[in-house]
Amino acid sequence: MLRFVPIPTGIARHYQAGGVDSYGLLPESKVSDGGGNPCRHCLRMIPEGKGMLVLAHRPFGSVQPYAETGPIFLCAQGCDAGGGADVPEILASPDYIVRGYGADERIVYGTGGVVATGDIPARAAALLALPEVDFVHVRSARNNCFQLRVERG
């Protein structure tokens, strides 16, 4: 069984309360145009006209060479954490990069690839069946932006 995991609530609340991002900058406040602004906490699209934050996020516990940092969107107001066993709403593009990481938060070479959205559960399950893979990232196939994490459920 798989579990689709958003950024932790404590981190989301930090950003939503005006805390600095992974680059030490304040999140930018924007208004969603409704054209595809996926919140990495509730794992839903931010509706048109709603406030959102744009910020740099590093979805890793430590700074090391494989700890990619990049832009994410987040609901400006507190939102409930999404996730669970079902593919979340934010995975609305035709395909994504799916990549395995070890317990040391480093890429497990040979695990990354562009996967059709409907095939993400099967690919993530196959990667998580490997003993060297501790978790999986789903990232934008076009911009490499972090979407969410997949774990054994």
From TrEMBL:
InterPro entries given in the database record: DUF1203
Domain of life: Bacteria
Listed name of the protein: DUF1203 domain-containing protein
